Amino acid sequence: QWFPQFIGGHLTGTSFGIPGRNATYDYVIIGGRTAGSVVAARLVEGTNATVAVVEAGTFYELSNGNLSQVPYYSQQYSGLDWQSHIESGMFTGNRPLHYAQGKNLGGSSGRNPMLYNRGTKGPYDLWAEEVGDNSYRWDNFFLFFEKSINFTPPDMTLRAANASANYSTQAQQEKSGPLHVHYPNYAQPISSYGPEAYAGAGFSPVQDFISGDLNGYNYFAFAIDLDGNTRSSAETAFFSPAMSSGRLTVYQSSTVRKILFDRNKRAIGVEIDLPGLQPYDLNATKEVILSAGALRSPQLLMLSEIGLNATMSQLGIPTVSALDFVGQNMHDSCAIGGISFQMTTPSQTSILSTEEDRIKADEQFRVSGTGPLTNIGADFASVNVILVATTSRGHVTINSTNVFDQPVIKTNWLSTIADQEVAVDAYRRVLSTVENIEARVGDYTAPNSTILSDNTLLLQYIQDEGVGPIHHASITCRMGREGDATAVVDPKGRVSGVQRLRVIDSSSFGFTPPGHTQAATYGHTEKLVTDVIRDGGYADRWNETVGMG
Ligand SMILES: Cc1cc2nc3c(=O)[nH]c(=O)nc-3n(C[C@H](O)[C@H](O)[C@H](O)COP(=O)(O)OP(=O)(O)OC[C@H]3O[C@@H](n4cnc5c(N)ncnc54)[C@H](O)[C@@H]3O)c2cc1C
Q1: Predicted TM-score of the model (pTM)
Q2: What is the C-alpha end-to-end distance of the chain, expressed in Å?
Q3: What is the pLDDT of residues 414-449, one digit of tens each?
Q4: What is the CA(419)–ligand 1 centre distance, in A?
Q5: Is 403 helix (H, G, I), strand (E, B) or coil?
């Protein structure tokens, strides 16, 4: 049972840094979300170092309670988000669009709808080639995926008989990590029509979405903890358990304004802003690790004098390291809408439309861990279209020296002919699945058949009304081979031109595999933190405690 006043077995308040007071740690981590939580936990486990995490948000269990924890409500939030917007443009019908990024311990893993999948094999091999490090090859990288997760097969005694999910024997063996990956105890009624609909459109079943093949249909797995059927996040799985070590200190609701360097360009700490207090410093005797995510890691590098000379000189920021590609090269998936139609089965929303339904579902969730609240509302027959391997590239930059001002985000979705053609073709392909859904009633409500039959009109419709974020930004501090002038970090995540500073998060990928990005972020972080530990001289202890050769 969850007691909100306890985090990781401690009263809240234990293991917390004292705001306003300078302090010194071996490692200072900026951002306690997905990557930052994993770095903190692995450093505590694999070293005897002291570690501080500075996070602008707080524990989502405290600030957002059940809404963050119960799968069905997982996309509702208050105060957990940075409220960023992307620059509107012709490819998004000039609409202002919110771009979510979690602001809490556990990060976007505490704010996302928890889908867990891993991308396909080839792109990992490409990542390895791009950066000249074979650790990123699928066969080698698998070790890092496995380290994070604890897989549980679907419980078919609780799911409906016509909602069985495939999973591989490989998945079954993945039991040693802290992040729970599981199939909900309830499937959306429409999903039972999925196999027939997708097979009719020429797709085949895949054994799961974590073994390196995404080309086919199946149910998604989610980061859900079977014990309570609540969200399993980087905070619950990694961060909070690590707090019991006594060597992990968290500064919550605290925003890093700047990374500090000595005259030899060595990162020596961070400057923190907490409203109502004078700024104060945390010193790092070994390294500063930047894990502020794909939108805010480049922002913080630029505010810390690392980036494109032209941008920074306009704002009067001097340069410690002139790196032209900070914030450039942003890879991002985008949702492009879908096809709406009426159906005879209950939908995600209609199933809980009355007060009585909600009370019943709540009781079912609490008493037996079953029912609609265990499911986020999307299985595999929701007819959303997402471009997962895009060729359009965006960027992130700054127009202010204040960390509390939003970074400028330009996604440029659908700006290449290739992405435009795939978008139109994807709608056609989806159309052929929808044709086969027996539960569909009548014609489509949107887009109408005139638009659907004309490529130009359809593309315009997608740009004006369909395209939007699914929040998978990455590579804004791109990893490249040592000496690559277009890269920001090397294959160990070390920032070029300075010392003792690494970027470990989704911004420092070398290539973004198709699919959702949290599994790649967990794997990438597990890989880079082994580099931190080895470079810190802790290899022996690491091998002994974690068994990594
Ligand atoms: C709404 C949403 C839905 C998503 N859905 C899915 C999904 O279902 N499946 C999936 O696989 N992926 C999903 N993703 C993507 C996935 O969650 C991210 O790719 C992943 O969490 C990125 O991790 P990260 O560590 O790079 O960044 P984040 O998790 O964003 O962590 C960055 C942390 O740094 C903190 N921070 C930033 N600046 C500062 C500062 N100056 N000082 C202190 N702290 C700072 C932030 O508050 C944040 O906690 C989703 C993302 C979002 C936002």
Answers
A1: 0.94
A2: 37
A3: 999 999 999 999 998 988 888 888 888 877 778 888
A4: 25
A5: coil
What is the whole-number distance in angstroms between the Cα of residue 116 and the centre of ligand 1? 14
Find the domain containing 65 and state its range: 6-538
Q: What is the ipTM of this complex?
A: 0.99
Q: Which atom of ligand 1 is nearest to the CA of 256?
A: 42
Cα separations in angstroms, 42 against 47, 247, 249, 329, 333: 8, 12, 14, 29, 29
391, 419 in Cβ contact below 8 A? yes
What is the Cα–Cα distance from 278 to 13, expressed in whole angstroms?
Answer: 21
549 assigned to some structural domain: no
Q: How many domains does the chain have?
A: 1
CB 54 within 8 A of CB 29: yes
| Backbone CA torsion sign across 482, 476, 290, 146 | negative
In a domain, 543, yes or no: no
Tens-place pLDDT, residues 263-278: 999 999 999 988 788 8
3-state SS assignment for residue 280: strand
Ligand 1, CB within 6 Å, residue ranges: 30-36, 54-57, 100-104, 107-109, 111-115, 255-256, 291-294, 296, 300, 403, 471-472, 505-506, 516-519, 521
Question: How many angstroms is it from 102 CA to the middle of ligand 1?
Answer: 5
Is 256 known to sit in a ligand binding site? yes
* Catalytic residue, candidates 331, 395, 472, 524: 472
Average pLDDT rounded to a whole number, residues 374-387: 80
In a domain, 546, yes or no: no
548 within domain boundaries: no
User: Does the active-site annotation cover 180?
Assistant: no
Instruction: Return the pLDDT at 541.
Output: 64
Interval 491-520: pLDDT, tens: 999 999 999 999 999 999 999 999 999 999
Tell me, what CATH number does 242's domain have? Answer: 3.50.50.60
Closest residue by Cα to residue 546 from 245, 143, 106, 118? 143
Q: Which of 55, 78, 108 to mutate to test the pocket of ligand 1 (most atoms within 8 A of CB)?
A: 108
472 catalytic residue (yes or no): yes
